[in-house]
């Protein structure tokens, strides 16, 4: 009983430290990735941002020039030529080129984020309910609330379910989000490179305490994770006895 | 000239609204559309105040200005008010004001429907707002995701207010959609073929058709969710074979076209204003028409991009991702056609153009982030964050509000007869433009730093505080800009300089109606020979020909329009439309009472009110055609040199209205079939539904009776078409008898079938299907019954063959959905 109590206090302490740590470095920032999936999205973003800014400036400048340039009388033939050139190059060419480039980079990036089968994969169940996250390790009989421990450099499948309403599981620095939907099980692949603690939160509005529905993901080096697993199993074993 | 003056006073007598309280019975499009726009502006202010409250709460971290309960109501109502009570109605209002004037006619084709739509909008809006003042407003977000909005997790009446109130308001949207479509297709001035139509009308035609097809999925979804909440029918409950994701599909099936429903009219304003200030016709008219049509179609295939994180199969995500990106092409075509128009024109930089430039910058920015969001892996990261909030404000405020204000300044002289001034308008522009970008530009970064939407507060030290402060600060600048704008417009009505005729030297016909316009727009309906009548023909006049005088005779006291061919614009008939009527107000009041009684769960009262509403609507249908207050037969009408009145033909506007309404109805029905098949095949606990309890033989027998009725009815119409109107009463009675037999069997079947509607989503869906059939069959039977009386009274005859032609498509539709239901709902599961 006392052990159990201590354990809980311990957890609370770790959680507080982790949250404040997470606050210092990156917090929930997509732009400060800690894994290959989030990293790919960061590169996509900066690429799209650069091209998008160029297009925005270009189109507005062209518009401004068209409005302000000295007037010239165009023959109907010239008008047709200018129109076709602008519409074909700007209206069709520009979006087609931009979209193609975007897909060339985007499709492989998205493809790599999917939970492809692999022998090293470990599975963790996350069950969302108003307003907390129940975490369980199916092979190890470990139950946690609002915190997840992962080994670094290992593909992890998070199997996400919901007890009540729709929630969304999101650890911004590790990768994209996935909804927790009653009646369904969704799988999200997480992959952490750098050991550390990363903040997670519910992204889909789920009721009054949605704002407070947060959790922490601890990415441990692989050997530490193994130690952690055996420790946890021992303590749950003792608790059961 | 003197002659014209006395004509004008005669026209005013027929066309003007009743004085005093009689204004409530007004049906004239200019009056009704003004009310739409003013009411829309009021709701805009309310929605804006809600936004200011949200921004105040978020200005500082861990602020406790507003409780989480109230905050949830605020963001839900802000979205709801802005979308359903401001954006759509105000654009409908603008379209209803401009379209008849632009196409050279005197009114919309179903004036009473305009008035009904307005009252439904007004009453619905008031009902929804009441919930906010009572502190029980909907609080699950404006897209009402269930199960959060279900009876279990939203125990208060908030969701009911949303579901019932919005559905009520949607009556106005759908009726405007039907009315605008038919008006544009059938009442253009003689000679105005589709290719001579002002570009704005193309945009509105596309918008109206998109409303017709796009709103029904949401109406169905709202009905299903309300049934789940009120009667426990588990459409969205996975334990009983339902699925919460079905709500999302139906919602976004509406929700995405909705974005284009808002954008298209605004783009239409841009396409109208730019050529006027460039002093040359719009270049690439055909390109733009093609772009509009493409946009209309593609926008129905994008909805899943709102749902990339719900775990939809990858292939489907890829399809919707690419489709969402491709919609950039028709948008870009328009932008570059506008640039080409400016390029080859001689540009005058007046106030409306300033707003159009603001539109361009903001909208292109929003479009670009839209393409980014269509990329699935990026969406997985930023979905449901402030990045998305910033994106859709860029699209909606840039794509809708800026052109709307540009259009406001452009058409102000038309509304008031006075010119706007540059100074204050310019101030308002810069305050709103700078305030907007200060609020939303850096909000993209707030989202990238991980701030989710709909959180009521946040911790400091996440890097979000200064960004939120900036956004809140910017939003107050923007609000002051709107204050300036309203002040400018109000002052202008009082002090603005008088406008001259066609002050901007525009090309479209609305500027020929006088500023401000008369209630009948045109004394003589003009004949159109070019796409730019005011540029190409100095004096717009009717060409006096054998078959038309421009309808300048008013001695008959009827309100009349020309009906022309949908494609060629060739003169076909004279459409007589109803003048002022109390029926819209009465019907809308009963419908509002129905809404309130459902809200307070007084079902007995609801039943009574439904009966009253039905009575007033059937009365409405009765006062039509050759009825004495409409267009009773007279000998004079044969002698005048105008085409026949439409109720003496077989293809008047009523037929078109019926067909367009049935398209909308069909969309509603298809949404139901979609829901049925979805629950059967995709829902988590899906299995082949058990439909054995429904007796196939009774159903088939009922269907046989229905089919006989439809065939007989078709023969009546065919005989009327060939001029044979003998034994009408007995023939109609036969149809009535078969229809009634069908209906009674269907009622018997529904009453005796043992459906587990509270434990099985399939059974619940079956009941909705049966109700759907019952509703249509009863209307068909009652309307036929009324026609028997009308035939006996002489309202239907050899010279008046119109009404059966109008009802015929409804009978065919009723039979169609009956047999499709029979196949999809009853046979398919058995043979599976």
Structural write-up:
Chain A has helices spanning 2-24, 36-68, 76-112, 222-240, and strands at 122-129, 132-137, 142-145, 147-151, 156-162, 167-170, 178-180, 186-190, 196-202, 214-220. Chain A is an alpha+beta fold and 241 residues long. Chain A folds into two domains: 2-30 and 121-240, Immunoglobulin-like, CATH 2.60.40; 36-112. In chain A, the strands form two sheets. In chain A, strands 3-2-1-5-8 form a five-stranded mixed beta sheet. Chain A starts with a helix and ends with a helix. The model of chain A is unreliable at 1-6 and 16-24 (pLDDT under 50). With 832 residues, chain B is mainly α. Chain B has two domains: 2-20 and 27-509, Cytochrome c oxidase-like, subunit I domain (Cytochrome C Oxidase, Chain A, Up-down Bundle); 691-832, Up-down Bundle (Four Helix Bundle (Hemerythrin (Met), subunit A)). The N and C termini of chain B lie far apart (77 Å). Chain B contains 25 helices and two strands. A two-stranded antiparallel ribbon of chain B has the order 1-2. Helix content of chain B is 66%, strand content 2%. Chain B has helices at 2-15, 29-58, 68-102, 111-133, 158-186, 199-231, 244-278, 285-298, 314-326, 328-344, 351-374, 376-382, 386-416, 422-440, 443-448, 465-495, 533-536, 583-599, 603-622, 636-639, 653-681, 696-721, 728-752, 761-793, 802-831; strands at residues 559-564, 571-577. Classes of the chains: A alpha+beta (241), B mainly alpha (832). At the A-B interface, helix 2 and helix 3 of A face helix 3, helix 9, helix 10, helix 11 and helix 12 of B.
Outline of chain B, from the CA principal axes?
globular
Number of helices of chain A: 4
Distance between the termini of chain A: 11 Å
CATH superfamily of the largest domain in chain A: Cupredoxins -  blue copper proteins
CATH class of the largest domain in chain B: Mainly Alpha
